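USER:
Make up one protein:

ASSISTANT:
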Amino acid sequence: MSQPVPLVLVHGLWDDPRLFRRLLAWLDDGRGEPLVPHLPHRLGAIGLERLAERLGEQIEGRYGRRQPIDLLGFSMGGVIARTWLQLGGGQGRVRRLISVGSPQRGTLVAQPWPRPLLTGIADMKIGSGLLRRLNGDLSGLAGVEALSYWCLLDSMIIPSWRGVLPVGAAIRLPVRDHRHLITHPAALAPISQELLRPG
């Protein structure tokens, strides 16, 4: 029996790898041992491109430069994962990109925060330089199976429809808030089913 493609899980703002403990319980070792890097962001002060570099370093340290992988990012982690994929050397090796409640098109929640102090949060503003680069050239997503999960009443992604990738399917989950997208059984069931689906 062939080994599953390695899975990399990327946490978001104010989170750490413990965020995924419920999801990992649902996976029940069906994806082997995922890589769940810790990406300290100093409360949003570190820019997302720098965090994407650190993500790439950890992926390369574990899997080398050629091993195909699947990426799942929650909240800010989805934008970090996508930034590494499109701008940081992930092209050609990512099989699936799964975005869960991630401000892929920006969020009004980030608009008030000044870039000099909170670069990472400012990168998630609607119309930020980083998001313009990501959404202006989608060639880096060619050949990637992209999927977005979102919820209607997302208090962090406003308006909530901005929490989906510009390519691939978008699935609205029947949960009531941002955090439930990665903790509630109504979200964990379909997400884990997707992750356990044969490629």
